[in-house]
Protein 1
Amino acid sequence: MALITKLDDLPDLFFIDLFNYLSSTDILWAFTNLNNRIQTLINERGYFRHINLSSTRLSKFDRLLSILPLNQIETLIIDIEASPLQLSRWPYLPHLTTLRLYRLRDFTDATNFILRHSTTLKHLTLETNDLFMQVSIIQKYFQTNIQMKK
């Protein structure tokens, strides 16, 4: 006789271990709104607070953006080359403290996004294809732009 295990029979620890092997995008894509128990586990473990959408294509990004609780996001990681339109589509994230943008080619969208979140950002990493830029290198540029906007 075969033993049948239902999703609801699996312990929370199973999902926590499984989530350690998945990206935040995969967790959100596959498990968000699956059922109340798993949704609560996702919320409690903070998978909405630290979002890495580096490999997310635009169609998946649009769907994820509609289900994310934007007021919970603290960390956002985006690979611009893989997802070039993401920065222009994000609304304001009131608790964003860490932003990492990789493979930047155009600083216009990045500058607008950074300026929009300048009051909450504490950690900023920008990387281009040719050059890794530390915050101290570009800090003067952004401070000048922030003062000009005021």
Protein 2
Amino acid sequence: MKNFTFKINENSYSVKIVSHESNTIDLEVNGTSYSVKMKEEIKTLKTPTLVRKPSTAAAVEPVKVNPSSSKTKIIAPIPGNILSIHVNVGDKIKTNDLLLVLEAMKMENSIVSEYSGVVSAIHVKVGQQVLQGELMIELE
């Protein structure tokens, strides 16, 4: 079945696994046959288990262009496609007004304003793909 070479205390051992049935393994070590019984039956997993570490990334917040300016950037929180844009340049918006809809992983995500202001620039169009952190809309 499988061949292994082990080096223990400067001694080399050639191990060949001949067969494996339930909890018994037949093997040869340097040509000498051995039958080894395991304490428990070896369980084989048919499907690997995927364990994900919880995300430690902070939520993406709107970013001020510079602290003395009144402009605010609305950036993409996740990569996706722009499905619809609900504002135009010059529109006055209030907190929680719908700005656009972003499709990501077959889910529609409503992007709303966290600030009141006036839309000064729209950097995306319907159907465009955006990456995480990409500038979409600027507010004044």
Protein 3
Amino acid sequence: MTVPQKRMTIPDRLNTDPDNVERGLVGLVLTIVELLRQLMERQAIRRMDDGVLTEEQIERVGTTLMALEDNMAKLREHFGLEPEELNLDLGPLGPLLSHK
């Protein structure tokens, strides 16, 4: 004789609360944007160290990266996210985002 298995409903498997779903999606998007911002910053530093950028280009890149960082902070605040919440733990590889 087999015991009937309880079927899991969607709420049993995942949290479908619209606020949590929105916050999770925003967190994921901001994580990707922060990763790209950090990569662009590292690339700009490499190019500055190599002497490839003009003073005007350095100024533009710096201004752009600062504006992006400010906008990221505003979005995190709006959605109640801390910077640490955007960093994914990749297990043996360590955290996704570098610390400042």
Protein 4
Amino acid sequence: MIGLVLVAHQPLAAALGEGIQHVFGDQAALVLRDIRPDEDCTQASRRLAADIAAVDSGQGVLVLTDVQGATPTNIACEAVRDAMSAGHAATVLSGTNLPMLLRVVNQRLREPGLDLGELAQRALEGGRDGVVLIHFSPNGQ
């Protein structure tokens, strides 16, 4: 099973994790990491690299972050570089939303042999497909 690590501004990772649990129950090979405003980035990156190693069963790890260019993503990228140099396959995807996470968890459960690149692609599709403009007519219908 591909490992999942969610890294986000506190308390978003925990909250999104509750959304996953609400729909699918407890999940194996899933780590949720909230990054506090006062967090030491070097220590957080080391912990995250250890998390990646812990959930990698040999199929790789998808690391999901909330905002491109923000501290949680920067920490995740550093951790992935370290994990990759230690022999772990990992991919970082930013812009995480609940539809993306639900797609990822569903795909992991339904297709356990899916490779990391394909799971990342399906995550992107789930994130995009989950953003929808809902139109209302002037009379409320």
